[in-house]
């Protein structure tokens, strides 16, 4: 009986191992086998797709036929019209004033680090109204695709940026238009929209098609509605944040496929004007690249009775010419973009190149050729700056060479940059894969003024913030925020949103820390490369920073005394938005063959338990003759040999 | 010793008894476990792992796979004074029905039914027919009574009538009326049967022109029916027009490759209002249209035109036209806001150095309209502006584009692309040119007939192939939403077929559009993809570690029970013997 039991269990074991073997081998062969089977399984799908794409060959072998116009089809409508409008001719007097306007501009700023900051801005202004229900359908300079998006989705304001690299505020100063690494999108919808979330979902999908970006990954788990940080930049006083959506994709990688559709939105494309400099192989060979589209309604004139729509396309790039130029500090347009300027875009009403020469008032730092007599002063980011201006609409700018190749040669590498008054950084602390701590450091470098900043943090749900551990300290003392807006996350539904208004004391570092726990994701929720880590988008810090111009209370400058007693001078403070680094957080990552192992292991345990139970239930038990012990058996053999009856 | 023996014997018999009952219990346990596994376990496993498949109206879908369409139209034949004598008038049959059946292929049968009603003209109609010209008569007849969509009225007028010119026998107006002049040999003394027999071929021709014709309908079915090579021509015609769709986007693009020299102004807004909008309004029952326009600068054509010294002009050959639009198309941009097909109309103004530019046809002749169209894509017109300024002009020049000329071409192209066929009328026919709307009522009817048939055929094909697909791949989840879409598509299809049979063209088109929308929505629903690629062998690979250890002991003990039972029976038999 025991032997049989033993043999049956051996049989079971063999079967079991055999089954495992079958399972493993079948698992290995399935990718190809399964595929074949599927392919063979649904010929209907293939034929159906053929049917669906039946137009395709028709398109390829297009028949080209000359159009025969029957005069009859025109009928009387033509004669009607003929009477009213003169046939096409050169009629300068009757040309209507175009309702749209295009400007282009390039600002180049040599940085103290030896890098070059080039910032392109293209601005299309259109006197039309997308808001009042009337259908806008005839486009001239404004791109049709964006116009259709605005009118279909009732967008009031749209800001989208694609950035590759991180802006180093401490080295480069403030950018003209800040943007976080990756993609950022924020949209204000009109207050007539009822289903904002549905619109937002559809809008992101359409935009991802327009810009060839993965904006379709924006969903409710990375969308927030900031209550204070993102106010409308255009006219209009609706500030109900129900109509605002904000999302970032820090993982997004920006490359030529995003640049091409962006260039296509320009009226001149990349065929004329400043846009011919935008060659992708040079633009993406840089330390920082950021392109953006901003659409907003603006006032048409001073009275602001009617609105215009402004489309601003910007592109900021930082070239690291110092390292690539073999230690020689000089640059030219050709070196940066491998092109020179030959003409302005003929559609542009203004086309200018600005070179920031503030750091070089006497011309002893660097030398700029060709020289220009045009100078312009402007207060940018609270700082009074001087620019050399090249007006591309004037033929004289291009000189006898018919091309403009700006060249700057440094004479000395001295000089220092004013430290930016506000900057921030962020990192993750802690060890292990269970908990961690996010540290956000905000630096106020102003020597004597404190100012408030708005900090916005949007943390994905899989980092569970312990909001009770939130501490804000500056100069070793606790700094209580005057406003906190916190929206806790819901797993797989929405992220954490933390907004606070913090007063930064002068010349200080304010540290915001919050602890978090890392959640375990479902195995389908991991990215294809889970050990790379998960990105957490940049924090956004918005603030009104006291201007450097106003900081200067020592009235040694040659200015009238009556003009500078009170520190509140022209533009005493200016708006700054800075973004911290995105975080890369490791989450506990399972072994992805685990589900199958678990299935096998559980099944084994179940089978073992079940097997013994089954045996207990079905086996019959009987008393066996106790077999004599070994000593007794040997003794019996000996007795048998001796002919003595056994024991 | 004997005692001992006895004792062991009883012990043994006791143990045999115990042994037997134990064994019996074990067998029962094995049987009950097997029963539990089979009765509870297997159905439970089956229920919990099966994919959800909502009920689909399969039998109705299979009925639809065999498309049997009947197209009915009402024709009213009105005899004016002087065409029939009073005796004849009494014998005029009230109605006559004519059926015409065509088997297109084994799955598609078309039946045309013409219901002809005969009557004599009323006094008012007589007055209307006494107008001076045919066009006026047409208008006043229209004001008298408006015939419904899809029906026709044919007025038979005497030979002496001055409405039509001498050589014209049939006049087709802008609405749904036609005038038919009775032949000279039919004057007097013939019976009514002879008269009707004489009218018959003419009436048929009128119907072919003003209502559906068999070629149109088979062309509309071209997706479904494989056409024989001999009617290639009609296939080319049917491929020119856009496929039926609930909406179209019309985009006018002004291509200005040389904004440095030409500053172009086109009053597209006014032109659309004047020329395109009436046609679009008229076509509203067929589809929704949205119109927009854009200006593209620095848009180049894909080919370099050849310079023709004899004409001092640049020319584009027909065979190079195919390469013209590819670089332009990248800049046209699709419509971001909808997924309807886009009809592109491009107005190309050649740059200074390449003008004038003319398009040549196959015979090396200049095309008078200087325009061409591409099937199911749109049209391009080349607009030369070099004659508007002298050689000493200061660039950039402001140029106003003559929209009447441009829109004439685009309107003709639009009609072609929408499938409004310029049907070739038989000799002796006079077709009134359509007026300001750009489309006569009967042309709209023709379009609606073929669009309804096309919609029904497409929706039926979509639904049947979806049903086949779902039938073949058992892994696909069919949720309630899809089932509902499918049933609504089937219902709309049945309604459309029924309305077509009843002759209510407007309703038939409406239902066929609903059917096509619902069927497409069901077919392209993303939820159908979820479990598509979950092959069966992988599924069983996962189950084997559980199933094998569980089933093997059950099977073995069942086998053992069966073999023991058989042995026992054999023993019993042996004992009996």
Automatic annotation (TrEMBL), chain A:
Keywords carried by this UniProt record: Signal
Signal peptide as annotated in the record: 1-26
Comp. bias intervals (Polar residues): 82-94
GO CC list: GPI-anchor transamidase complex
Biased composition (Basic and acidic residues): 59-81
Name listed for the protein in its UniProt record: Phosphatidylinositol glycan anchor biosynthesis, class T
One Pfam family matching this protein: Gpi16
From TrEMBL, chain B:
Pfam family, one: PIG-S
GO CC field: GPI-anchor transamidase complex
Key word Transmembrane helix present: yes
UniProt cross-references to InterPro entries, sorted A to Z: PtdIno-glycan_biosynth_class_S (IPR019540)
Compartment list: Endoplasmic reticulum membrane
Keywords linked to the UniProt accession: Endoplasmic reticulum, Glycoprotein, GPI-anchor biosynthesis, Membrane, Transmembrane, Transmembrane helix
Pathway it works in: Glycolipid biosynthesis; glycosylphosphatidylinositol-anchor biosynthesis
GO biological process, one term: attachment of GPI anchor to protein
Presence of keyword Transmembrane helix: yes
Membrane topology summary: Multi-pass membrane protein
Membrane-spanning residues: 28-46, 540-562
Sequence similarity: Belongs to the PIGS family.
Protein name: Phosphatidylinositol glycan anchor biosynthesis, class S
Organism: Anabas testudineus
Gene: PIGS
């Amino acid at each position: 009986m025991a032997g049989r039991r033993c043999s049956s269990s051996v049989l079971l074991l063999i079967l079991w191992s055999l089954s495992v073997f079958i399972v493993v081998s079948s698992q290995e062969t399935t990718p190809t086998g399964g595929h074949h089977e599927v392919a063979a399984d649904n010929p209907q799908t293939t034929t159906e797709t053929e049917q669906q794409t039946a137009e395709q060959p028709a398109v390829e072998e297009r028949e080209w036929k000359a159009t025969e116009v029957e005069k009859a089809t025109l009928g009387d409508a033509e004669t009607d019209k003929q009477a009213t409008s003169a046939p096409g001719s050169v009629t300068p007097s009757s040309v209507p004033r175009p309702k749209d306007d295009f400007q282009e501009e390039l600002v180049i700023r040599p940085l103290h680090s030896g890098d070059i900051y080039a910032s392109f801005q293209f601005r299309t202004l259109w006197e039309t109204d997308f808001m009042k229900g009337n259908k806008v359908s005839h486009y001239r300079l404004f791109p049709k695709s964006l116009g259709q998006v605005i009118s279909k989705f009732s967008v009031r304001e749209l800001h989208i940026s694609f950035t590759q690299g991180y802006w180093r505020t401490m080295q480069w100063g403030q950018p003209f238009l800040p943007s976080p690494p990756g993609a950022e999108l924020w949209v204000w919808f009109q207050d007539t929209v009822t289903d904002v979330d549905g619109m937002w979902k559809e809008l992101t999908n359409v935009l991802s098609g327009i810009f060839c970006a993965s904006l379709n990954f924006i969903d409710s788990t990375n969308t927030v509605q900031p209550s204070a940080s993102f106010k409308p930049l255009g006219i209009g006083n609706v500030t109900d944040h129900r109509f605002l959506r904000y999302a970032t994709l820090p993982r997004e990688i920006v490359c030529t496929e995003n640049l091409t559709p962006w260039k296509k939105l320009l009226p001149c494309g990349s065929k004329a004007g400043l846009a011919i400099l935008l060659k992708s192989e040079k633009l993406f060979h840089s330390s920082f690249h950021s392109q953006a589209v901003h659409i907003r309604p603006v006032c048409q004139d001073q009275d602001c009775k009617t609105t215009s729509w402004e489309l601003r396309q910007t592109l900021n790039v930082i070239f690291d010419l110092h390292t690539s130029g073999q230690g020689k500090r000089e640059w030219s347009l050709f070196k940066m973009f491998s092109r020179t300027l030959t003409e302005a875009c003929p559609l542009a009403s203004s086309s200018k190149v600005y070179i920031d020469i503030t750091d070089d008032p006497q011309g002893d730092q660097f030398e700029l050729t060709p020289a220009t007599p045009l100078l312009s002063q402007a207060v940018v980011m609270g700082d009074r700056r001087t620019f050399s201006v090249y007006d591309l609409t004037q033929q004289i700018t291009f000189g006898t060479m018919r091309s403009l190749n700006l060249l700057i040669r440094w004479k000395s590498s001295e000089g220092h940059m004013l430290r930016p008054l506000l900057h921030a950084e962020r990192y993750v602390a802690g060890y292990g894969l269970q908990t961690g701590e996010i540290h956000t450091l905000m630096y106020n470098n102003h020597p004597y003024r404190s100012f408030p900043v708005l900090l916005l943090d949007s943390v994905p749900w899989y980092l569970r913030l312990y909001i009770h551990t939130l501490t804000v300290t500056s100069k070793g003392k606790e700094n209580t925020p005057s406003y906190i807006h916190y929206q806790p996350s819901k797993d797989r539904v929405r992220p954490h949103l933390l907004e606070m208004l913090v007063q930064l004391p002068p010349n200080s570092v304010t540290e915001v820390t919050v602890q978090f726990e890392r959640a375990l994701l479902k195995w389908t929720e991991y990215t294809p490369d889970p050990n790379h880590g998960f990105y957490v988008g940049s924090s956004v810090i918005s603030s009104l920073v006291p201007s450097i111009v106003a900081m200067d209370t020592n009235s040694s400058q040659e200015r009238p005394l009556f003009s500078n007693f009170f520190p509140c001078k022209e533009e005493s403070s200016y708006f700054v938005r800075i973004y911290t680094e995105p975080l890369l957080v490791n989450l506990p990552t399972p072994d992805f063959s685990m589900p199958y192992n678990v299935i096998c292991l559980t099944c084994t345990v179940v089978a073992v338990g079940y097997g013994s139970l089954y045996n207990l239930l079905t086996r019959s038990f009987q008393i066996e003759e106790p077999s004599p012990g070994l000593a007794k058996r040997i003794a019996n053999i000996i007795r048998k040999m001796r002919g003595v009856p056994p024991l | 010793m004997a005692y001992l023996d006895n004792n062991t014997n009883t012990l043994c018999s006791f143990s045999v008894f115990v042994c037997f009952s134990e064994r019996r219990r074990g067998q029962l346990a094995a049987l009950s476990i097997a029963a539990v596994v089979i009765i509870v376990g297997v159905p439970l496993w089956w229920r919990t792992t099966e994919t959800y498949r909502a009920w689909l109206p399969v039998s109705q879908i299979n009925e639809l796979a065999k498309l049997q369409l009947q197209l009915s139209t009402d024709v009213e034949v009105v005899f004016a004074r002087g065409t029939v004598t009073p005796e004849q008038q009494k014998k005029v049959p009230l109605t006559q029905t004519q059926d015409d059946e065509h088997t297109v292929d084994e799955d598609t049968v078309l039946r045309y039914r013409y219901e002809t009603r005969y009557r004599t003209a009323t006094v008012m109609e007589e007055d209307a027919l006494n107008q001076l010209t045919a066009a006026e008569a047409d208008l006043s007849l229209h004001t008298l009574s408006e015939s419904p969509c899809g029906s026709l009225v044919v007025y038979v007028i005497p030979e002496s009538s001055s409405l039509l010119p001498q050589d014209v026998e049939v006049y087709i107006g802008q609405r749904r009326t036609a005038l038919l002049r009775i032949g000279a040999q039919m004057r007097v003394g013939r019976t009514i049967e002879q008269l009707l027999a004489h009218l018959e071929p003419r009436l048929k021709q009128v119907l072919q022109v003003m209502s559906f014709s068999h070629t149109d309908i088979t062309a509309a079915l071209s997706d479904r029916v494989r056409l024989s090579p001999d009617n290639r021509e009609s296939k080319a015609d049917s491929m020119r027009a856009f496929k039926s769709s609930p909406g179209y986007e019309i985009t006018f693009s002004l291509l200005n490759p040389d904004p440095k020299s030409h500053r172009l102004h086109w009053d597209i807004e006014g032109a659309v209002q004047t020329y395109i909008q009436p046609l679009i309004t008229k076509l509203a029952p067929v589809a929704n249209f949205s119109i927009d326009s854009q200006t593209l600068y620095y848009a180049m054509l894909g080919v370099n035109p050849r310079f023709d010294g004899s004409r001092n002009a640049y020319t584009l050959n027909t065979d190079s036209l195919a390469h013209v639009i590819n670089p332009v198309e990248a800049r046209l941009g699709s419509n971001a806001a909808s997924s309807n097909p886009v009809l592109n109309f491009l107005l190309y103004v050649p740059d200074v150095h390449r003008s004038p530019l003319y398009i040549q046809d196959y015979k090396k002749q200049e095309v008078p309209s200087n325009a061409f169209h591409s099937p199911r894509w749109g049209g391009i017109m080349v607009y030369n502006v070099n004659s508007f300024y002298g050689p000493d002009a200061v660039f950039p020049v402001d140029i106003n584009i003559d929209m009447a000329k441009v829109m004439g071409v685009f309107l003709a192209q639009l009609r072609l692309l929408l499938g409004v066929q310029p049907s070739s009328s038989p000799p002796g026919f006079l077709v009134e040119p359509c007026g300001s709307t750009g489309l006569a009522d009967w042309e709209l009817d023709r379009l609606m007939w073929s669009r309804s048939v096309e919609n029904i055929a497409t929706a039926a094909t979509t639904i049947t192939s979806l049903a086949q697909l779902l039938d073949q791949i058992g892994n696909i989840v069919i949720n309630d939403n899809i089932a509902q879409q499918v049933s609504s598509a089937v219902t709309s299809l049945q309604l459309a077929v029924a309305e077509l049979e009843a002759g209510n063209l407007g309703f038939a088109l409406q239902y066929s559009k609903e059917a096509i929308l619902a069927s497409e929505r069901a077919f392209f629903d993303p939820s159908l993809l979820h479990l598509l690629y979950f092959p069966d062998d992988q599924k069983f690979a996962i189950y084997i570690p559980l199933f094998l250890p569980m089933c093997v002991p059950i099977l073995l003990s069942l086998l053992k029970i069966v073999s023991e039972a058989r042995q026992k029976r054999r023993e019993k038999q042996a004992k009996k013997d």
